[in-house]
Specification:
The complex is a heterodimer of chains A (about 70) and B (about 150).
Chain A: E1 2-3, H1 5-11, H2 16-23, H3 27-34, H4 42-52, H5 56-59, E2 60-61, H6 63-69
Antiparallel strand pairs in A: 1-2
Helix pairs in contact in A: 2-3
Chain B: H1 7-37, H2 42-66, H3 69-107, H4 113-146
Helix pairs in contact in B: 1-2, 3-4
Classes of the chains: A mainly alpha (about 70), B mainly alpha (about 150).
Chain lengths: ~70, ~150
């Protein structure tokens, strides 16, 4: 699964630690999600979407969907 | 479904975890003092051991509840893969030692059978738990380094 976390975080000038604090997860977990090593659960995906004020689809996309769009 | 302001609850869990970890260390130190310095009589050893196990279990639960989902998954993976590799190593050691153990076990039948049983159980426990725990720690360290 692909995500735009790094871009969205940079737009808001947030560090990984800032985002981790807002999500109540560890910084390592934010890093794992950003780099695609870990796909978040649906509740965490909702939490991420809430923090950024966006829908889940605007942040996450399946690999094949992202490739088709390119 | 989502709770954004969860931090105070999380810090309460942290404090509980730290308390039980501290208790575990205190009980473990008393246990070691009892074993190596004969501070207590043997009857206290069982109760100290029981206290260690209870405190460890409580601190493990407390610690587990402070982890987020990605950390939990990493620990599950580390236990599964690291622990499995460790158990395979245990099996190899066991199979390699089996012929020797069989012959010395038969030879030891004339000795105090209770001592032989105690030593065999202890050796079996260490053989089962040590490689699996080491495998878990190594696997976890690799995952941690990758997500640093």
């Amino acid at each position: 699964m692909r995500n735009r976390l790094k871009v969205l975080r940079a737009e808001r000038n947030w560090s990984q630690a800032d985002l981790a604090e807002k999500l109540d997860v560890s910084r390592q977990s934010v890093n794992a999600i950003e780099t695609g090593k870990y796909d978040p659960s649906l509740p965490l995906a909702f939490k991420i979407a809430t923090v950024f004020g966006m829908s889940i689809e605007q942040i996450f996309s399946a690999d094949d969907v992202a490739q088709a769009a390119e | 479904m989502t709770q954004l302001a969860d931090t105070p609850r999380r810090s309460l869990r942290e404090r509980r975890k730290n308390l039980f970890t501290l208790l575990t260390c205190v009980f473990a130190l008393l246990y070691l003092a009892s074993v190596f310095a004969d501070v207590f009589v043997d009857a206290n050893l069982f109760w100290l051991s029981a206290a260690i196990v209870v405190a460890m279990t409580a601190s493990t639960f407390g610690w587990g509840r402070t982890l987020d989902e990605a950390q939990l998954k990493a620990h599950y993976q580390a236990w599964f893969w690291g622990g499995s590799v460790g158990l395979m190593v245990s099996s190899l050691i066991f199979l390699a030692l089996l012929p020797t153990m069989m012959s010395s076990g038969i030879a030891a039948l004339g000795d105090d059978i209770a001592d032989v049983a105690t030593m065999s159980f202890t050796a079996g426990f260490v053989l089962a738990i040590l490689p699996a725990t080491l495998g878990y720690l190594v696997w976890w360290a690799v995952l941690w380094m990758r997500n640093r």
